[in-house]
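Problem statement: downstream parser choked on a complex file, so we are re-checking the raw output for the zinc ion run. The parser issue turned out to be on our end (a line-ending mismatch), but while we're here, posting the original submission so the record is complete.
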Amino acid sequence: MKADLVVKNAGQLVTVAGHSKKAKRGRDLGELAIISGGAVAVRDGLITAVGKTGAVMEQIELTGDGRIIDAGGKVVLPGLVDPHTHLVFAGSREDEFEMKIKGSAYLDILAQGGGILSTVRSTRAAGESELAGIGKKYLAEMLSQGTTTAEVKSGYGLTTDDELKQLRAIQALRDGQPVELVATFLGAHAIPEEYKENPEAFVGLIIDEMLPAVSRAGLAECCDVFCEEGVFSVEQSRRILQAAQRRGFKLKLHADEITPLGGAELAAELGALSADHLVAITRQGIEKLAASQTVAVLLPATTFCLMGEKYAPAREMIDAGVAIALAGDFNPGSSPVNSLPVVMGIACRQLKLTPAEALAAVTINAAHAIGRAISVGSIEVGKKADLVIFDAHDYRSIAYRLGTNLVEKVIKSGCLVVGG
Ligand code: IZC
Ligand code: ZN
């Protein structure tokens, strides 16, 4: 069999194989299918063989310009998948960081016209290429820390034109850099100042004007809503998501982050890809998610950055059979964190995930949360050759060495994009 790339001699080749159809749950979450002394063969960007180095090398014939990368006994993982980011925005919110240290609450800052609305003002003032340029820099940071696929939301425009501008900036980001992007329309991210007195009219605008325009432009695959007290109610969220579903969007939901409104139940009821945050999820919400295919995307870096005392009840969810994933929630307000290894480190310490569970949660289960598990999230024949080599001999080091970037090389679709 011909190969144009082989990665060999991985001390631990962490494949996370066997779950491309259904997300990992319960005890199975921590089963990583590790091959010691492993190798991966690649042709035209896709994985063609996986196994012990000796066995893979026997099967393959290297093409003329083919390349062999010796992992030298180090850890090799599937490219990491970040299933929840607000990556494209202008400005930043260091002022609110200091306000929060001194005791201000996230939702109070928003109610006073700051928070998301502050980023909306700076994003409205920025041009499309300026936005893409800022996003590109953040994406390069993510790639250098192992992220090869990411979901990116709009939601800082909040007019039809500004939402389309933000989505076009996400589209423009696809060119000239390797991270694969899944775009999500989040017009229902906040009630803009001009609709403060009439939020229902804004819900109408989203349903009657924004969703059709975004759908026509083909700029987003998913639709999301920030379902929270003082933002969008469960009833408004349901109407927006059902309208999106009728237009063929896949669904996601910011659910039960601060107030237990029943967002988890709504996401499960509508068959959403994911329900995200869930710090305040109820027992009923956990049971509804456990009985559904909806993935619970947990964002512990957000709780950490908001200096919250309570984290999402991850262990209770895992025990109940909920499929969980982890994400960075990268945004200028509640989580300026875009490193998945840092998220894993916080998840182990605060959500009490084992390092193996955290790893499955940023690979195959994260891929399920964005509808990409058929092509990414694990090292298996037929999938995209997205691989990360870490300067470590034990996969647990990645979460353990919190704050140190151990990424040595990144391969996206068979191309060496970091560490060449
Ligand atoms: O800009 O604060 N939670 N949306 C919902 C965010 C955080 C992003 C932001
Ligand atoms: Zn978010």
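For whoever reads this later: The CA atoms of residues 256 and 262 lie 7 Å apart.
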